[in-house]
Design a protein that fits this description.
Layout: H1 6-10, H2 17-24, H3 30-40, E1 49-60, E2 63-70, E3 82-89, E4 92-103, E5 109-114, H4 120-128, E6 134-137, E7 153-158, H5 162-174, E8 181-187, H6 196-205, E9 209-215, H7 216-219, E10 234-239, H8 241-253, E11 261-264, E12 278-283, E13 288-293, H9 298-304, E14 322-327, E15 330-332, E16 338-339, E17 344-347, E18 351-353, E19 357-359
Bound molecules: FE2/S2 (inorganic) cluster (FES).
């Protein structure tokens, strides 16, 4: 039973300033302060963000929307961004990123979680997180944004790729975006069409919005015919890597001068043509030389060597794994570009070495 109400925890960030000062000077340990604060209320911490679950509702057969109220350390977010959720299971800290589907005026946020066979963290949250429980979340990240000056917008989502686009769409419409918007949502069948009722209600409320559910059981995967005749000047897409690649190819072929905004929630795949040549990876700060290959990202190979580099999404989005390339060449799996500038920042989770490399981890 918490000793103080959550409302007090939310407004306590400023009172903790003296404790932060003592921690910054090394006179107190943050972990010790956090341990005491957590006794007073499970969501109270010096700097870390913990959020209390306010509501949960199923928005598809396999997707649950959670409304969370973060503590006073939350600095806000932008629509279209994502957050990491952290849960400790059997002594192992697991994390996974989820998109913000709504940002409410009272400071609460909404994320949507899809059930994955074998998805330990997602299934734990789906099955066990009850209203009133708390969960740790990270700082928001992600660069998708609404093009407020667009003449028309096309949103292409596959599966849970809908979630960041819904966050963007809701706020744009609320703020009065009046140009035509079309949303195509690819799912296997009607049971997987998340937020169907909300989207229908939005469509009735905003005459400039058209929503087209695309059932892949009937229509197949994304194809150019589905968007033939589209006059969109801006396209935003999110889905698995293969889906986003198809959209990217189509958008590139139209000769459009505005760049595509794209995010994929599954990691890019390594081109098998790149081979599995053995190479030497030097992890400079760890002073470790490891034999590696050109078949998997540096993050994966560093972990296999026993290192624990900081990371979050593992999809090239959150930037948590950014480090410096000190020498050698890597391929960025998102764009296919070769990066070789010494001192250049790279993201370990989407960078595959193309020969011997030295990185600053
Ligand atoms: S872990 Fe998120 S960008 Fe690499």
């Amino acid at each position: 039973m918490p000793l103080i109400p959550f409302a007090l925890v939310r407004h306590s960030a400023r009172w903790l300033a003296p404790l932060r000062f003592l921690v910054a000077r090394g006179w107190l340990r943050e972990a010790s302060v956090d341990a005491v604060l957590a006794i007073v209320h499970p969501a109270w911490r010096l700097n870390r963000v913990f959020a209390r679950l306010r509501a949960r509702r199923w928005v598809a057969d396999d997707m649950l929307a959670l409304t969370l109220q973060p503590n006073g350390n939350w600095r806000g977010a932008e629509p279209g961004q994502h957050i990491q959720a952290y849960v400790e299971l059997a002594g192992i800290r697991l994390s996974r990123s989820y998109s913000l589907t709504a940002l409410h005026a009272d400071g609460s946020i909404e994320i949507a979680i899809k059930r994955h066979p074998g998805g330990r963290l997602s299934n734990r949250l789906l099955d066990y997180l009850a209203v009133g429980d708390v969960v740790e979340v990270g700082e928001p990240f992600g660069e998708l944004h609404w093009p407020h000056d667009a003449e028309s917008v096309l949103l292409l989502a596959a599966g849970s790729g809908l979630t960041p686009l819904l966050g963007l769409l809701r706020q744009a419409l609320q703020k009065g975006f009046g140009a035509p918007v079309e949303l195509l949502h690819y799912v296997r069948d009607a049971g997987q069409q998340a937020f169907a009722q909300e989207l229908q209600a939005l469509q009735q409320q905003y005459r400039n919005l058209r929503v087209r559910p695309m059932f892949s059981s009937q229509l197949g995967r994304f194809s150019v015919e589905h968007v033939q005749g589209s006059s969109a000047t801006e396209v935003i897409t999110c889905g698995p890597f293969g889906f986003v690649s198809s959209v990217r190819d189509w958008w590139g072929s139209t000769g459009a001068d505005r760049p595509l905004q794209a995010e994929s929630f599954s990691p890019p795949t390594v081109n098998s043509e790149s081979g599995h040549s053995p190479l030497l990876m030097r992890f400079a700060r760890a002073q470790q030389d490891v034999l590696g290959d050109s078949a998997s990202p540096l993050l994966q190979q560093a972990e296999a060597a026993g290192l624990r580099p900081a990371h979050g999404c593992r999809q090239g989005i959150c930037a948590s794994c950014t480090c410096l390339l000190l020498s050698g060449v890597v391929r960025d799996l998102r764009s296919g570009a070769l990066l070789s500038e010494p001192g250049q920042a790279i993201r370990l989770c989407v960078s595959v070495p193309q020969g011997d490399v030295v990185v600053d981890i």
